[in-house]
Amino acid sequence: MSAEFLYTIEVILNGLLTGVMYSLVALGFVLIFKASGIFNYSQGVMALFAALTLVGFQDGQVPFAELINAVLGTEIHGFGWEMPTILAILCALAVMLLFAILVERIILKHLVNQEPIILFMATIGLAYFLEGFGDLMWGSDIKALDLGLPQGGSFWIEDMTVSWAAEDSGFYGMYIDKLDLIAAGVAVALVVALTAFSQYTRIGRALRAVADDHQAALSVGISLRFIWVVTWAIAGFVALVAGSMWGAKSGVQFSLSLIALKALPVLMLGGFTSIPGAIVGGLIIGVGEKLFEFAIGPMVGGATENWFAYVLALIFLVFRPQGLFGDKIIERV
Amino acid sequence: MKLSRLAAVAAAAMIAASPALADLNVPALNYRTGPYAPSGIPYADGFSDYMTLLNERDGGVGGERINVMECETAYNTQKGVECYEALKGENPLVFIPQSTGITYQLIPKASADGIPVHSMAYGRTSAVNGKVFEWVFIMPGTYWDAASMMVKYAMEQEGGSLEGKKIALVYHNSAYGKEPIRTLEELSKKHGYTLTQLAVDHPGQEQKSQWLQIRRERPDYVFMWGWGVMNSVAIQEAANIRFPMDKFIGVWWSGSEADVLPAGAGADGYKSITWHKPGADFPAYEQIKTLVHDKGKAAGDGTTIGEVGYNRGVYAAVIVTEAIKAAQEATGKSNITAADMRDAYETLTITAERWAEIGLPEFAQPLQASCADHGAPHMGAIQQWNASEKTWTLVSDFMTPDEEVVGPLIEEDSMAYAAENNITPRTCE
């Protein structure tokens, strides 16, 4: 096989794996939109906050240390111990659950029956609040997140594939990042778990009922407030997974919240209400942008990925405005 | 009655909070929040801590206390301009914009208002030409100096020639990131290397395509003009593809602890250019610890001392305070103006002996500014990261740029600016 062909395959595989990372973020948006019709602007910041909380627990950081020091004149920075990763994940999950309860109590409860745009605006406010709150709670310095996961190109795949092209062809074996493979496995597990939860559990069925028709769900005794807490808690869990995977790659810092920008074209393409749509949308965006950058990028100065993802999503929208897997909007007169 | 008392208390509080007229007002356009906070915090701490040291130890400069007027920009150009507008009426001596975007906005404004701008090794490169940019100072050097010195270092490593070699430039897709391209292109003609340009869009969280291309093309060196999370992601990706870290060299804004720490052991051996020594092993830092930190007067939590960003804050503070001192000596008055400050910047001299005298021996190179040269000393060295000890170490001597290539480029660009803006360049004789 020619090196050029093999490199194209490499780009496609890496695009698929990158797409999975985008899907992880997009899933959080889908869950909340599906259950409550709210486009949650703060999903990216939730991923940042969840990752900050995880690494804060891991490193034994004292929450609000700078604030405490400034007010009380103390010199507190850490507890002096490091928490095992599993325990830190559980603690971070507990914080995200508490966050979901507070969001419902403080924001959503007061906005029942409001227009979707009002709820959207509320999530914008939540995003800005959470940005500052996260900084205040854990500090705004960059934090390395070590989950004990392997990272970097797989030697095994490289060695296995290097002989697929002639020795002097300039092919050095296929590059696949081990962390990306793990993220793909996590995403698959997440989708299976979410599907099983919504299909086979009582709460899951209640979630689906609210998503289908919340007034009908209310009439059969399903508590809308409880469902909102569950939805936001699950979205918080997904944010923790996405924040952890992206944080392990780049460190945990403010820019992590901007990964939401990568999820938007995925949602436009896959539809705002479909979990499989978020996955398939992510894969299409991932492969599309990587192939375009590989083939066309060098001719137009590179850095095409950000805008091309949106162009690709727009092309799909022309033919399917509701996205590939979105619910078709039927207005009856 | 109660209302009038309240008004009197409020007025007294406002007077107390506003800077005293006799103070030396130095605005600090910091960014302790936002996406670039990890880089902005150490700088802001270093700048303020050094000023506090002078206030605590010497009562300021020349008997006048220094009043650092912090204004948070979050590295946002619009907020930076708002800070400028808010502070320009407070008798500021100099503005240090802390952002290339803000610098570009302030150059015409501050020049018209008669306030010097010190864009320390960032901003508009050709502003180094004092004949055209009377109010702008860029010491200790320019991006074009940095590009030239990085090529010089690579050439030294290759035994004196880059003929037939490949250099890849990974750059932030912005005006800042594109700054070195022209210089590197000119140098490629002179030294015979091939230049590959790889743009990374803001914020740079995802760079798989760029690093797959680097893996395919196997350049001999990778240079980086990055900022924020782009740096740490690039270093991680380089480690992932097992690119030799000692052949990966970043500009001075791609070489701080925030850039290398997230990559952990993978960042070991990464290099960047710098204009000052790393670490906290200086007498002045001991005084900062005892007279500032131990007394609870640190600008931050005291943990950033000795970091690259912190040392840059100290460097900026030294330049400002040495210029104040020079202005006071030249004018014979302690309460100087922005115009006095500009004149002092233009004739600023800091010798090696002076660096030692202020407690920072061999911290940075001696400098001698002039009417025509607002970017002295134009010197840089390469530092390398040791991941296990979490320290930077200088691994080269201080170098000078290739003036034969950089000089004409600066002349051409600055004269084009002068023509566009109807500026008649000074003669500087």
TrEMBL record, chain A:
Signal peptide: none annotated. InterPro entries: ABC_transp_permease, BCAA_transport_permease. The keyword Glycoprotein does not apply. It is found in: Cell membrane. One of its GO terms (cellular component) is plasma membrane. GO terms for biological process: amino acid transport. The chain crosses the membrane at residues 12-33, 45-65, 85-108, 117-138, 181-201, 222-246, 266-287, 299-319. The keyword Transmembrane helix applies. GO terms for molecular function: transmembrane transporter activity. CDD domains: TM_PBP1_LivH_like. Keywords: Amino-acid transport, Cell membrane, Membrane, Transmembrane, Transmembrane helix, Transport. It is a multi-pass membrane protein. Belongs to the binding-protein-dependent transport system permease family. LivHM subfamily. This is Amino acid/amide ABC transporter membrane protein 1, HAAT family.
TrEMBL record, chain B:
Residues 25-387 form the Leucine-binding protein domain. Keywords: Signal. It holds the Pfam family Peripla_BP_6. The keyword Signal applies. The keyword Signal applies. Residues 1-22 form the signal peptide. InterPro entries: Leu-bd, Peripla_BP_I. Belongs to the leucine-binding protein family. This is Amino acid/amide ABC transporter substrate-binding protein, HAAT family. It comes from Albimonas pacifica.
